[in-house]
């Protein structure tokens, strides 16, 4: 499990070593025939993590995304090869060669494009497209937001108030129960994660009014305002959260209210504007 962003890996495997190598942390080593470990050293390793399904993060996956380049392979065409599994699972020299050929084919890419991607120039939008897909599938908060949030019908500057945050959190917990996703995320962590997911255009940080902002409002340098945090422009989809449903005597998450594309629709909104703050 990654220390700051737990991830579910097939068959319960862990990715501690992968994460430490990505961080370039010193690793304890020893000679092949030596009895004792040597002084830790940096390994400068290149890591490739491949998966046929998106990695499922419980929380805090931003650190992972900053440290890796995510690329999607081309979708498969045609019918599956029924003999491929048997060809890959043997332990003979021929099986090893077949696996090497399959990995080389899957990772093949024109060298010029490889160099561009590694330099993060992203000429074809490969990194941007993959990052958008990861944002919607890599952690539970993003998955919930994509399925359960929508732009506010009252406009992009409509404030999300304290009671709204309570409903958002309860809806998220209901979604986790419905999706059979174990989570121990506290409400404050959920709010922080959702604000990072939606970005600064929707969730404005507290800050002191700049000199230019004060001058435009006719205030002096000494009269600059302390601007409060402001979240606006997003809300739960209608019918998703049923307050005090009679048959259950409590609030109920309604999965029939879910739909895809919430993150994309919210990202297309103009940046939220704070209401006029009085000095």
Give the N-terminus to C-terminus distance in angstroms: 49 Å
Low-confidence stretches: 1-7
Instruction: Summarize the main sheet.
Output: 2 strands, antiparallel
| Helix content estimate | 25-40%
In round numbers, the mean pLDDT is 77
Commentary on this structure:
By secondary structure, the protein is an alpha+beta fold. It is built from 11 helices and 10 strands. The protein has a two-stranded antiparallel ribbon with strand order 1-2. Strands 3-8 form a two-stranded antiparallel ribbon. The chain has a two-stranded antiparallel ribbon with strand order 4-7. The model is unreliable at 1-7 (pLDDT under 50).
How do you describe this structure in short?
The chain is an alpha+beta fold. Helices cover 37% and strands 10% of the residues.
Task: Give a topology summary.
Blueprint: E1 7-8, H1 16-22, E2 56-57, H2 62-67, H3 84-89, H4 93-107, H5 111-118, H6 126-137, H7 140-148, E3 149-151, H8 162-178, H9 187-198, E4 203-204, E5 207-208, H10 211-216, E6 226-227, E7 230-231, E8 234-236, E9 241-245, E10 250-253, H11 262-267
Antiparallel strand pairs: 1-2, 3-8, 4-7, 5-6, 9-10
Helix pairs in contact: 7-8
